[in-house]
Each structure stands twice: as C-alpha cells, then as structure tokens.
Write a structure and sequence with these properties.
The chain has 251 residues and is an alpha+beta fold. It is built from ten helices and eight strands.
C-alpha cells in the first residue's frame, strides 16, 4: 500500500473512532479539534464517510453520528462467538435467578435490536427472537438508551420519533416521554409498565463501554400474571452487577 493511501485510511479510521467514542454527535470542526488535520482534509474525509454510510448527519444538518454501516460492523463484533459465549453465560445465570426471559439489545436507529436472549422455561412468554427490533419510546431498553443523552439531545431525538400508541399505557406526547426519561436518568434504569405490550412489564439497565457510554442494555420482561413491576424492581442490583460483568469480561 502506498504511503499516502495508508495515511488516508488511518485518518478515516481515526475520524470513525472519534465519532464512535464521543459523548455526543460532533461536527467536522469539533472532530478536528481532537485530530488536528488540515481543515479541507477533515471536511473531505467526513463527506466520504457520510456518502458511504459510515457516518450520518444529525437533524441539524451539521453534526455527525455513526451510520448504518458502522452499526452493522459493531453488531458483527458483538455477535462474534468469542464474545457471545461469555455474554450468553451471564444471561443464562441471570435468567435462572429471575426466572424470566433476559435480553441484550443495542441501539439501531429509532429502535433497539436484540443481539442475545435466554428464554424463560414458562410456556407463557413473549416471542421476540434475536434480531428483532422494538421501539425506543415504549420499551425499557429504548428509554434507558434515550435517557443516556443530555436533555437537549433527548429533545431532538424525541422530535424525530413517531409516538404511536401501542397499548393504553403508551406515552404518546413528547412532554410525558421527556418526564419519564428524566426519571430514568436519575434512577439509572428504565421501566416498561405495560407500555409496549399489555400485561407485560420490563426492566432494563445500561451496559457501558470503557468511556462510560451506553453501548447496549440488559433487560428482562415478565407477564403481570407472574410478576408485578414492584416485584421486578427487586432484581435491579443483580442486573446491574451482570451489566458490569458484560462490560468487562475479564473481571
């Protein structure tokens, strides 16, 4: 590989890394404050990454966030056998402790996508296989993810969502959802009190990366005929401990 080609490739990867590990979307100038490239170079390379689907523009038309191809690559890494064995072991242990189905999901646009799952032994259960996507605004996992952003960022994200009523308890106004996200951020875990499926409750906790950013969620759901929401909350400490183990396989 020619030296210039290698230099360009390294710069592209450094831009992708800067956007991926940042605590918020960034514009090219902010990215360059970290990397120190020539101004024309940073704008050109960001345009290439956006055009090819590695980055995408935010609603303001200025800032950049991870694009569909970067999410797809991240999902492939998370789904690799090396990581899956450890992840699945933690899920099995937690599912046996709680007695209900446990899931790991990651953000995927305006939805959360299940990347691993351990089913309860009970015949009455909700069928959501690995790869299924669920809405952000009415699920415990989705609200945990939305609550991880600063208030101003949350508002712009909510503005881009279609708050369609799924069941009677679904929060369908921006103000109601924002109030719930504020509570979620304060307590450190998300709840679904029959907001996605009638007769089902769910609790989710964040899984953080080394930069203390949420990159996935750990959750479980149960029918109200077996477990009330208050009963589900007793398992939050065990879920948080499992989330720490999932974030650091070496611990």
């Amino acid at each position: 590989m020619a030296q210039d080609e290698g230099s360009t490739l390294l710069r592209l990867l450094e831009i992708v890394e800067a956007v991926s590990v940042g605590d918020r979307p960034r514009n090219p100038t902010e990215i360059n404050d970290q990397l120190g490239y020539p101004k024309a170079t940073i704008h050109r390379l960001c345009s290439v990454l956006e055009r090819e689907g590695w980055l995408q523009r935010e609603l303001d038309g200025k800032r950049l966030s991870p694009g569909r191809r970067l999410y797809r690559m991240a999902l492939g890494v998370l789904s690799s056998e090396q990581h899956r064995a450890h992840r699945h072991t933690v899920l099995v242990r937690l599912s046996r402790l709680i007695g209900e189905t446990c899931n790991i999901s990651i953000p995927d646009g305006s939805q959360m996508r299940y990347i691993d799952r351990v089913e309860t032994h009970w015949p009455l259960r909700m069928q959501l296989p690995i790869g299924s996507r669920v809405p952000l605004y009415c699920t415990a996992a989705g609200k945990t993810y939305l609550a991880s952003f600063p208030k101003s960022r949350r508002r712009s994200l909510i503005a881009g969502l279609e708050l369609q009523p799924r069941v009677a308890k679904t929060l369908t106004t921006p103000d109601a959802l924002e109030a719930e996200l504020e509570k979620t951020a304060e307590r450190g875990y998300g709840l679904d009190d029959e907001e996605f499926v009638e007769g089902m409750v769910c609790v989710a906790v964040p899984i953080y990366n080394d930069s203390k950013q949420l990159f996935a969620t750990l959750s479980f759901h149960a029918p109200t005929s077996r477990m009330s929401l208050q009963e589900a909350l007793q398992f939050v400490p065990q879920m948080q401990e499992a989330a720490r183990e999932l974030a650091d396989p070496e611990q």
